[in-house]
């Protein structure tokens, strides 16, 4: 019953996505080309990686507003570790990733240990992590990375961008974890009824801690790919990322109240948004204007979800 | 009962009530004083007229936006779109001013727009029960994207002199400061002495008890957001008129600064408590810290990290206090 | 305290004759989802009277109270005030008619001061229509003084007050609205003994002032000390209304329990075995303390006690939700540490919680998802949940407990209360527990399911399971238990073997004020 119901949202979304693709392909002949589509895939990878973790976060009934700041901080640390500290670049990558992961762990600890609502905890760390990025970088950008490093963000494997392979792999893993494992069951249980989950012997705090830590890790991974793609490190990287990510996840059918959502839905949500942005840009809407669409789509998706829930007599 | 029969105290002395009701405000005020004393001792120029003017007048719009934000947070909600709204208001006012409309229309029309937009946001939050963070995140991108796509980032210049309200100096004090002080006092009295003001606290403190006491929480939330729009509108006008150009973009992270001012000024992020005096003082404190970093030869790029730490510390202290009270 | 004179805000008994019957409820009935929870009940209040309302959980007391306070509307019957029929559509209209309620979950604003909490929504104003704080504080002071609470700080935030003081604030709030009828729903349930005495003094003062008080309590000693009349409800029916002089404790208990002895409970099968679970001086903070007992294989051990007596808290400590802060827990004679529900489960302990909706089930999920939740490890290979095993387990539970559902994929919230409870049982019995703690195992479920669960409990005990049962329903405790522990004030105050456990003896130990040791 529930599986069918969950799938229904994904089916609608899939149909919508296909329709959008058809309409956009008709609007511009540049849209439906392999080159454009692969390039769009490249552009959505960073948001996509973070959205995987965000799906888990929102399914537990939480939220993480600090992912964009973690991305910025990790990017800066990568540059600083390499250029200023003098670590070999592979080591700098590992160290920066570790810091991103720790930033996520920090969120998790504030939320589980001190019982600070996730919204507030991550609002505070949004400022803190971005502030650390700015303070450490002093607005200096880092450039001059070696050529091999650009493979992560610009390279191709069998004609497909490297980060799309990575995104595909991690999406599959995340989908399996959320849909098929004991951890996934625990995640849904925590979001649907935290008390009942605790009373059923689920390790609620540990589950949340893992999830926020994973969000930090994936934001860090996105940072490395971002830096590799744009060949430079700046402290304002990832500003506003949380909005894109949350929109994709919620559009994908994950309930902002927790307990409901799938990775497949998130993937579809992201594709739809990226297609809309790209399609609108190609049909002449000015670059940043497309984020209006994101805002409208976000509110509309949740409104529809809320009304849908009410009609079901929940 | 004779009026003279007040020899027996009915409650706490006024002084203790003041301490109990304004603890966080006093802490912030003392911090400002300490900052002035210390930084002033290290670098005399920190206390110069110019610098003090810059601190107060240049940041008044933040304090004014924080008044409305405080009301929103006291009512148990949040608004992350206020920075974008201020950007839109500023651009709208500037455009009207250079298009030849009377100055008062350029001032008033954007404020009415802000009230209308935020009342709509409030209604959406109150009646559909969608969390305010989600609705205002959406508004953030609508306003920001809308602004950029309409203006394409073009600056507005050649603003008429009589439009520049923030630069006027009645009685030798910048009008932005007059606005900040006046609106803070009015809002503080409003929050303390009117039914609507107290309803904001009631709804944010315990929505079920508020309903049981005969209040209408939905209407209160819509009203709070409309008021918040009013203050954001004024903040936008002051922001538009403090420099000779309007950049037609959204000031980066303005919403965060505004929220932080409210929270550090003692407005509990869980709703139900805090005052606008605190948020105004906190806005001044930030401006002082930002300025002090420069005078102490510390890079201003650390400012936001300091703010982040301060929010975190305040929130953790608030959680600890609430747990103890329970 | 000086001469303040009569306080203007207080109700006066100026014209008691006109208010001979301030309020009367006649022939009230109410059903929810086709189940009749109140059946032709009549109830009336006289001026300056304390009218006690008595009955077991589920007897219909709270429904009756909610009808009087305007939260529910009766399906049948009418309310009249001074002989005139009235209809309350909202709590506000009930307030306007002079009926105020002190709810069990106090409806206050923790961040606002005492004075403001009393007057919120009806504060005194200056002629500028602004709040007059000075007048508000003064009137708050007068109200609290009139409640014999001159020590209560009107400028303190309510969040910093004790429960007893918060309750006084709520009573003051009710009085500030000129309440002529005050409904108090188990006001002493969460109070310490000294506070109970003060509350009773306050009730007497109000009574002297002409306020009519509906007093709901399980504590018979309070009822005998305070009430003028008592109305007993049972299973939604009006058993009787009597002057307090006409009854004694035994009579009240048997009126409440009624069918106690006439219901058939399944008989014990076999003998109790060796001790399985033992508690030695276990405590959790200052909530429960000095808890010592042992639970034997094949035994059903009942815990009787009022809400707030520490019975659920004891269960939560054994189950690791609130790990013990002192004392020792032994299983099979060796000490164990139970720091989490997970640890408890791994030691073979299962807990069927009292609140099915919030603690027992995830109602938006399916039967199989719920059943799997406590058994994820066993139902998976590595990290992967084995969907086939889960389905089989759920089908097993449906068959074994006779759950009436379309199948394992049905959402739990669509099931009836009894079937939901069987899902909880299915979930926990699938963990193969040796120790089963059941908190209110049959609350709010229909008679048929109730009997099925009782039979199941006996069967499980017969198979060697040790069962600890908590229940507010005295007949259930007496009918099912091999031994009965009575808790009161966070301690075990009495232990009875089956043959000594009479309703009177157990009831007396439960309701004795303050939890002093049983003689």
Which structural traits does this protein have?
heterotrimer, A: 314 residues, mainly alpha, 2 strands, 75% helix, B: 326 residues, ABC transporter involved in vitamin B12 uptake, BtuC, 13 helices, 71% helix, 0% strand, globular
Strand order of the largest sheet of chain C: 6-7-8-3-9-10
Estimate what percentage of residues of chain A fall within beta strands: under 5%
CATH architecture of the largest domain in chain C: 3-Layer(aba) Sandwich
Number of β-strand runs of chain A: 2
Largest sheet of chain A: 2 strands, antiparallel
Overall geometry of chain C: globular
Q: Looking at the chains present, what oligomeric state does this protein adopt?
A: heterotrimer
Q: Major beta sheet of chain C, specifics?
A: 6 strands, mixed
Strand content of chain C: 15-25%
Number of domains of chain A: 1
How far from one another are the termini of chain A?
Answer: 15 Å
Q: Biggest interface pair, residues each?
A: A-B, 51 and 46 residues
Q: Structural class of chain A, please?
A: mainly alpha
Helicity of chain A, as a percent range: over 70%
Please give the domain count of chain C: 3
Strands side by side in the biggest sheet of chain A? 1-2
Taking all Cα atoms into account, the compactness measure Rg of chain A is 19 Å
Average pLDDT rating of chain A:
87
Write down the secondary-structure element order of chain A: HHHHHHEEHHHHHHH
DSSP, total strands of chain C: 22
Describe this structure in words.
- The complex is a heterotrimer of chains A (314), B (326) and C (519).
- Chain A has 314 residues and is mostly helical.
- Chain A has one domain (46-271).
- In chain A, 75% of the residues lie in helices and 1% in strands.
- In chain A, helix 2 (34-59) crosses helix 12.
- Chain A is globular, with a radius of gyration of 19 Å.
- Chain B is an all-alpha fold and 326 residues long.
- Chain B has 13 helices and no strands.
- Chain B has helices at 14-21, 23-42, 49-74, 82-98, 103-128, 132-151, 175-193, 195-205, 207-212, 217-241, 254-264, 276-295, 303-325.
- The radius of gyration of chain B is 20 Å and the shape is globular.
- In chain B, 52% of the residues are buried.
- Chain C is an alpha/beta fold.
- Chain C folds into three domains: 21-98 and 180-257, P-loop containing nucleotide triphosphate hydrolases (Rossmann fold); 107-179, no CATH class; 262-348 and 433-515, Rossmann fold (3-Layer(aba) Sandwich).
- Chain C contains 17 helices and 22 strands.
- In chain C, a hairpin with a 2-residue loop joins strand 21 (483-488) and strand 22 (491-497).
- In chain C, helix 8 (249-257) crosses helix 17 and helix 12 (367-373) runs parallel beside helix 14.
- The longest helix of chain C is centred in the middle third of the chain and has 16 residues, at 193-208.
- Chains in contact: A-B, A-C, B-C.
- Chains A and B meet through helix 5, helix 11 and helix 13 of A and helix 6, helix 11 and helix 13 of B.
């Amino acid at each position: 019953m529930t599986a069918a119901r969950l799938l229904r949202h994904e089916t609608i979304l899939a149909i919508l996505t296909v329709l959008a693709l058809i309409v956009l392909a008709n609007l511009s002949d540049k849209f439906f080309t392999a080159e454009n589509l692969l390039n769009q895939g490249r552009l959505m990878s960073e948001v996509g990686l973070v959205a995987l973790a965000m799906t888990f976060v929102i399914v537990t009934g939480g939220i993480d507003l600090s992912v964009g700041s973690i991305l910025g901080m990790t990017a800066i640390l990568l540059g600083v570790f390499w250029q200023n500290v003098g670590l070999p670049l592979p080591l700098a990558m590992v160290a920066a990733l570790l810091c991103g992961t720790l930033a996520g762990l920090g969120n998790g600890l504030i939320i589980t240990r001190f019982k600070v609502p996730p919204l507030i905890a991550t609002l505070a760390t949004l400022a803190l992590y971005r502030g650390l990025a700015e303070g450490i970088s002093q607005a200096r950008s880092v450039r001059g990375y070696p050529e091999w490093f650009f493979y992560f963000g610009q390279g191709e494997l069998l004609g497909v961008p490297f980060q799309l392979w990575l995104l595909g792999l991690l999406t599959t893993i995340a989908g399996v974890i959320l849909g098929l494992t004991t951890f996934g069951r625990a995640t849904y249980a925590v979001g649907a009824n935290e008390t009942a989950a605790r009373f059923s012997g689920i390790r609620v705090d540990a589950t949340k801690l893992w999830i926020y830590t994973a969000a930090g890790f994936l934001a860090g991974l996105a940072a490395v790919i971002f830096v590799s793609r744009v060949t430079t490190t700046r402290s304002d990287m990832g500003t506003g990322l949380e909005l894109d990510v949350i929109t994709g996840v919620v559009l994908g059918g994950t309930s902002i109240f927790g307990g409901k959502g799938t990775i497949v839905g998130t993937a579809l949500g992201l594709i739809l948004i990226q297609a809309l942005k790209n399609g609108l840009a190609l049909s002449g809407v000015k670059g940043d204007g497309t984020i209006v669409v994101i805002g409208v789509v976000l509110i509309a998706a949740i409104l529809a979800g809320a009304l849908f829930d009410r009609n079901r007599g929940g | 009962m004779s009026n003279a029969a007040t020899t027996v105290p009915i409650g706490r002395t006024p002084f203790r009530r003041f301490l109990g009701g304004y603890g966080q405000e006093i802490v912030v005020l003392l911090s400002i004083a300490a900052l002035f004393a210390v930084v002033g001792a290290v670098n005399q120029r920190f206390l110069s007229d110019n610098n003090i003017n810059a601190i107060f007048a240049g940041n008044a719009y933040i304090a004014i936006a924080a008044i409305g934000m405080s009301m929103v947070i006291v009512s148990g909600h949040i608004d992350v779109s206020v920075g974008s709204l201020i950007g839109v208001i500023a651009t709208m006012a500037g455009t009207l001013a250079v298009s030849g409309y009377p100055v008062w229309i350029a001032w008033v029309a954007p404020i009415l727009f802000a009230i209308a937009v935020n009342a709509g946001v409030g209604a959406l939050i109150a009646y559909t029960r969608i969390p305010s963070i989600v609705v205002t995140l959406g508004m953030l991108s609508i306003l920001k994207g809308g602004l950029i796509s309409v203006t394409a980032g073009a600056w507005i210049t050649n603003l008429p002199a009589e439009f520049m309200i923030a630069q006027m100096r009645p009685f030798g004090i910048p009008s932005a400061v007059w606005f900040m002080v006046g609106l803070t006092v009015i809002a503080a009295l409003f929050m303390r002495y009117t039914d609507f003001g107290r309803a904001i606290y009631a709804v944010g403190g315990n929505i079920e008890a508020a309903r049981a006491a005969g209040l209408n929480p939905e209407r209160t939330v819509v009203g709070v957001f409309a008021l918040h729009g009013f203050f954001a509108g004024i903040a936008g006008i002051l922001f538009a008129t403090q420099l000779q150009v309007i950049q037609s973009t959204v000031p980066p992270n303005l919403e965060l600064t505004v929220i932080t001012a409210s929270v550090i000024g003692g407005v509990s992020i869980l709703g139900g408590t805090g005052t606008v005096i605190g948020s105004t003082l906190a806005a001044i404190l930030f401006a002082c810290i930002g300025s002090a970093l420069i005078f102490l030869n510390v890079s201003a790029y650390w400012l936001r990290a300091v703010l982040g730490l301060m929010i975190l510390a305040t929130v953790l202290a608030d959680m600890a206090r609430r747990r103890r009270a329970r | 305290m000086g001469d303040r004179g009569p306080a203007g805000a207080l109700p006066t008994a100026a014209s008691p004759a006109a208010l001979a019957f301030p309020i009367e409820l006649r022939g009230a009935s109410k059903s929810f989802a086709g189940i009749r929870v109140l059946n032709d009940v009549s109830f009336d209040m006289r001026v300056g009277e304390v009218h006690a309302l008595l009955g077991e959980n589920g007897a219909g007391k709270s429904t009756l109270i909610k009808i009087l306070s305007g939260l529910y509307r009766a399906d049948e019957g009418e309310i009249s005030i001074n002989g005139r029929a009235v209809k309350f559509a909202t709590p506000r209209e009930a307030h306007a008619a002079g009926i105020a309620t002190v709810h069990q979950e106090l409806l206050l604003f923790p961040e606002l001061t005492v004075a403001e909490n009393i007057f919120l929504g009806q504060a005194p104003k200056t002629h500028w229509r602004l709040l007059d704080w000075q007048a508000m504080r003064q009137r708050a002071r007068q109200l609290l003084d009139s409640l014999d609470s001159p020590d209560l700080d009107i400028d303190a935030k309510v969040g910093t007050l004790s429960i007893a003081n918060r309750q006084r604030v709520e009573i003051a709030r009710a009085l500030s609205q000129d309440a002529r009828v005050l409904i108090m729903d188990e006001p002493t349930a969460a109070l310490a003994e000294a506070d109970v005495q003060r509350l009773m003094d306050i009730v007497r003062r109000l009574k002297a002032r002409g306020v009519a008080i509906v007093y709901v309590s399980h504590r018979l000693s309070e009822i005998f000390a305070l009430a003028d009349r008592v109305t007993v409800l049972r299973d939604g029916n009006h058993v009787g209304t009597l002057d307090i002089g006409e009854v004694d404790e035994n009579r009240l208990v048997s009126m409440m329990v009624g069918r106690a002895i006439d219901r058939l409970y399944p008989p014990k099968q076999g003998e109790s075995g060796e001790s399985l679970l033992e508690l030695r001086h276990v405590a959790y903070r200052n909530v429960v303390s000095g808890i010592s007992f042992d639970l034997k294989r094949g035994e059903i051990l009942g815990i009787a006690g009022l809400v707030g007596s520490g019975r659920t808290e004891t269960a939560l400590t054994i189950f690791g939700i609130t790990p013990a802060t002192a004392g020792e827990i032994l299983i099979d004679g060796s000490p164990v540490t139970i720091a989490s529900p997970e640890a408890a489960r791994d030691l073979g302990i299962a807990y069927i919680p009292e609140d099915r909706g919030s603690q027992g089930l995830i109602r938006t999920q399916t039967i199989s998802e719920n059943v799997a939740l406590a058994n994820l490890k066993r139902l998976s290979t590595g990290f992967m949940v084995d969907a086939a095993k889960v389905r089989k387990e759920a089908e097993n539970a449906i068959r074994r407990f006779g759950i009436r559902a379309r199948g394992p994929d049905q959402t739990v919230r669509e099931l009836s209360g009894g079937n939901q409870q069987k899902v909880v049982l299915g979930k926990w019995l699938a963990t193969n527990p040796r120790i089963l703690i059941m908190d209110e195992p049959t609350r709010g479920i229909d008679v048929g399911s109730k009997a099925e669960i009782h039979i199941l409990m006996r069967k499980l005990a017969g198979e060697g399971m040790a069962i600890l049962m908590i229940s507010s329903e005295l007949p259930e405790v007496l009918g099912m238990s091999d031994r009965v522990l009575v808790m009161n004030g966070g301690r075990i105050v009495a232990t009875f073997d089956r043959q000594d456990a009479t309703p009177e003896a157990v009831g007396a130990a439960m309701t004795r004020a303050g939890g002093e040791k049983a003689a």
